[in-house]
Amino acid sequence: MTRSQAVNPNVCGVTAAIAVIDGKWKTSLLWLLEAGPHRPAELRRRLPGLSEKVLTQALREMESDGLVHREVHDVLPLKTVYSLTDFARRLSEALGPVSDLGHERLDRMAAEQAGEVELPAS
Prior knowledge:
Layout: H1 13-19, H2 26-33, H3 40-46, H4 52-64, E1 68-73, E2 79-84, H5 86-113
Antiparallel strand pairs: 1-2
């Protein structure tokens, strides 16, 4: 999936929505920003393995796609804060049931690894 699909009017709406959060870090960033505004350094500390370059790129793409708002405070040193837009909050709410299904899957996999037998749903 490419970001260009997010603007193609002839693509499925789900594809257009998923295209703006596609990538290794964007859903994690969305999840962290749900708790409130964060500075870039705070986001990096919360996501080990995320480089400054990739964080900057992801945040710029998310800003361009209307998911995050970037606010620069005119102090020395400059203070930049990112927060979610209303669109991102709506997207996050829509992804809630998908998250629930993901946790259900993880629980089932953990139960299977522990040797617990799960009865099929009727």
